[in-house]
């Protein structure tokens, strides 16, 4: 069974059982408590807590998905038989409908009837119970319908209680499912809300969160010895030189898959957050000097774009090659410095990272005995200390006052500031439209931050803008202001908005019904479903916005800045005249 057939059979199985098929969300989650999407349930957290209504959003209480996921916790284990940083999760989820009995029955049916795995190869664990959560007898009894008692083990809290995806959130008892003692699925039964202090309160409705390790399942179904022998990786091996050790080739294959999805989801190399993860992966590849690395990425796009059409080969190759080029200019100086050191502790490792861009993995691999006692925890603590110092400086600069509005993107401390922020918010929409008109459609939003004093807009572009280009952009925004364009909002389905080419921010997780803000000369009635004929800007957005561009005032770009490979920032203001 090919990986493509495996995906289809899984989704068809749950679609026939009343599940709505939901596409994978971005690797950049809309949940601020986590850096990257690490599990299929992250996009559904609010449905377990009752904050959102699955019937309203999906038309069903049950959903199924195949989710791109990324975990840095496994980065040091990559290259063994079963660990990856980038991986896919097959998942099915219920928000107040079925529970343990049905979930376990379907799990066994999938394994034996659909995936044709012999029953004697299957085993499971259930929670043994403790002072907070009792023994999971309901799961044990359900498994006993299919498995003998010796293949149903009772596990501890560490293995069979699933905590929240973040500092707080839904949690509950979990079953682990094994084939030949390799874990292939986790069945989580959401019954409690776990607060930051670890106290538990019952959820308003019980939920089911099931995640299958796709690569491991493919390995078992295809009869392979390890995940790297499956058809998910096979197309890559002919492009990786045999001079490299087997583990090294596996690391490259894993990292290349992760790099491809991170870049296609809009991440660009930088020294913080997701950009830092991406930079680490690319620079680790640089040390191995793979001559035809472009061919590896092209093979990934060819192999995966049928299921993940967002994979952008042009962006992947451009960002990777630019980062490799920049890194190679400094890496040798960093390696020379590393060679001169007798012993590398966390402080020196951070110096090598900050001054020369050498990530932890390279320092450990190249340093060998010099870095023998360097641990990732110590390195991360040093990095965290540096960030705390930087953050404290930023908070002091901002003033630390209470905010009337703080959406993450928009910040205002008073009604007067709210008016200024609203004008700048609409101006930022005009700015993105103007950038695309001057520089081309490759420009995509990568973030924004708006206060009463200024707007800051981050976007994808691979070089510094010329003075002439900046002036053209500024003049275009002011032209739109001078035309006194109306700003109108129309609600429509997310799918309809995307099909019509409406701009949207890659990091956002949008509901099924969205708001589309259009700026232009309207010669049609939007409320009647007719399309405008002279539109300057159209974006998915939650507001707030001015009613007419004449309210914005004179738009002025104050500066542009580089943020990393293929990523730039513009700062601008708007003065009422």
UniProtKB/TrEMBL annotation:
The keyword Isomerase does not apply. One of its GO terms (molecular function) is ATP binding. InterPro entries: aa-tRNA-synth_II/BPL/LPL (IPR045864), Ala-tRNA-lgiase_IIc (IPR002318), Ala-tRNA-ligase_IIc_anticod-bd (IPR018162), Ala-tRNA-synth_IIc_core (IPR018165), Ala-tRNA-synth_IIc_N (IPR018164), Ala-tRNA_ligase (IPR050058), Thr/Ala-tRNA-synth_IIc_edit (IPR018163), tRNA_SAD (IPR012947). It comes from the Bacteria. Its EC number is 6.1.1.7. Keywords: Aminoacyl-tRNA synthetase, ATP-binding, Ligase, Nucleotide-binding, Protein biosynthesis, RNA-binding, tRNA-binding. GO terms for biological process: alanyl-tRNA aminoacylation. The keyword Ligase applies. It holds the Pfam family tRNA_SAD. SMART domains: tRNA_SAD (SM00863). Transmembrane segments: none annotated. Gene3D superfamilies: 3.30.54.20, Bira Bifunctional Protein, Domain 2, Threonyl-trna Synthetase, Chain A, domain 2. GO terms for cellular component: cytoplasm. Belongs to the class-II aminoacyl-tRNA synthetase family. This is alanine--tRNA ligase. The lineage of its organism: Bacteria, Candidatus Giovannoniibacteriota.
